Input
Amino acid sequence: MININYLNPSKNNLRLNLIIGLSLVFLSLFDVFLYSFFDINITSFLPYFASFSLPLILGMFGLSIIRISYSGIKKLDSLNKNINTNNFNAALTLLIIFTIIKILPPVMSWMILDANISGDTKDACTGSGACWTYIKIWFKRFMYGMYPNEHIWRVNLAFIFLVVLAFVGFITPQKYKKYLSLYYIIIYPIIAYILIYYLISGGSLGLEWVETGAWGGLSLTFIVSFFSLIFCFPLGMALALGRRTNLPIIKYVSVGFIEFWRGVPLITVLFMSSVMFPMFLPQDFFMDKLVRVIIAISLFEAAYVAEVIRGGLQALPRGQYDASKSLGMGYWKMHIFVILPQALKLVIPGIANTFLALVKDTPLIFVVGLLEIIGMLQMAKTNPKWLGFAMEGYVFSAIVFFIICYAMSKYSYNLELKYKTDR
Amino acid sequence: MATRGIDFGYGFLTQESSFDVQFSLIEYSGSDSYARAYLVGLLNTLLVSILGIIFCTILGVIVGIARLSPNYLIRTTAAWYVEFFRNIPLLLQIFFWYYAALRALPLPQEADPMLGSFYLTIKGFYTPSLVWINLDIFIYSVIAAIVAIVFVRLYAKKLRENQGKHIPVLNISITILFILPLLTFFIGGVNVTYELPVLKQLAKTSFIFEGGLSIPPELLSLVIALSLYTATFIAECVRAGIEGISKGQREAAASIGLNRKQILNLIIMPQALRIIIPPATNQYLNLTKNSSLAAAIAYPDLVLVFAGTALMQTGKAIEIVSITMLTYLTLSLLISLLMNWYNARIAIVEK
Output
């Protein structure tokens, strides 16, 4: 006689348990699958609530039957260990799988199956899904803002140069490696500034002048975050060192500076840079909006960088300071050759997080009227010819930002592993 | 400044503001002063921040624990949630919820009631509101209950330290918290009724809900976006805190015969909290500062009401921007003081 104790499954009836349990699980998944993909409810004869919760009950029962420890089957054991440790976990597992099956068809049909990408007016979008035509038509605006179409090659050229120059570090011979940090900290930003000033802004060398108000889109996001990154890092380092010196004036000025910028939101800082700051300038002195924004963001993020670096400085044991002093090093020598290299190595994740925050904060420059990619989206959304495609725009820019930020965080993780030295 | 013809002064604060605010917690109309407009904005900012902090803590703790789950699917889902929501700018998320997600909701006249009388419409979320009689007595009773709980806890601590006795503090606290306010219904003459939102026709195609509590879509989308975004950071703090407790602690606790619940409550959590609190404080501060993005979707917070409308009307740029910044600075310092105090309380007392 076959005796199965369903509440406490054992190894004795392994095969039967497996068959019953797996078929119940598959039945429950099949039910959800049919309902979600083909809109067929095979249990419609049951009352609403029973029909609704039947897959969960069946699935949980099935999973509890196959929960046999040390069954001797490798796959079953790893299945039990990973998704089926107890009833609560089994229920959560089923709910997650059901949710995935449930939301996959609408998302797929919206994004791909029912979507349109052909044509170049709103009328081309006939399907019920997304209208990627909108993104296609507005793509140049999302990338370059209101930059004149015939001059876009200048932006492209400048960015190609910058990317190529950024990779110099990988091909320099070993002999010159020691000059690399000098190159990246001083020479590269100067080249970048010259490129952007003469190529993108123009006005000389036979190139037409394009005012900064016309810049925009993703390229503006890159320009603002690039320069802010470059300025905020040395400033933050100086502030962190300033906070740890024994000279009272420098110390308290640094503390006050850091605490002030960390205490206010970026949006008010940008307000300040646009409405309050010009009042303190001499009458005939003009400073471009973009420059003011970059200065504001750099000062703001420098305070955060300073706190991160201070954490690294504090984490170093006193012995490092004492040892370098005993070798006769002065303050600067000690910090440049002994302390900072170790401290910066420790805080790579923190600095990467701050830089990520900076990139994610750049869209805020819309408050002073500069439109990078999200600002352009908001503008395109209100265009009377293209009303009603907010969702497509948001999905597109979400993907763009996700790729940028995810790549940055993965790169910082690799950097962290590369410079990890166990003491 | 004098050359530009700008006069400096805070006298404008008492002038009549003559602009209206869509949503305010206190009574406000255009004939009130700028100072009151400032208060309206400040209260709205505080409302968003407090709601955001509550929701992001709940969600963050759940996701943080889920990331350590033995269940592969739960772990992966939580990890993807964190990766996804923290790599997308907050501004974009706020726009998404406000302009795309909540715009897809039905009009008031087409909305189906959820759970009887909750309506989620394009014009906001409508719930029944509670109408209190003798609300002040009820509030006093809640305060009395909290004071009583503090005393019970102190007494229980003394008992534990002197005699080694445990009394069920949590159960006693919950009982007091329920019984005392409940008594006021029978003795103090407190009564509560509710008011349902009712659909009302304004014009031929224009309907609104009247009565009940209405939560505007701006507030709704702001709170959703802020909580979802900040919860990812809280989740990482929680995960780091729990992972930071060495395995030996758990094993040692098990070896002296504590059960799973006791291990978590008495050994793991007190130590993990010490690691979690400082970074979580930073995240709460960030949330408060990020609530200023409300201005982008026209939720009347401090930045929109004061640094936006009031600044536009008076032109007092220096005064208004400095007041706004000082307010945020004070808020930040207050929150960090509060959390530092809590952190100091639970820190290890080193001898």
Q: What stands out?
A: Chain B has one domain: 2-128+196-346. Strands of chain B lie at 119-121, 124-127, 129-133, 191-195, 198-201, 207-210, 213-215. The two ends of chain B are 58 Å apart (CA to CA). The first helix of chain B runs from residue 34 to 66.
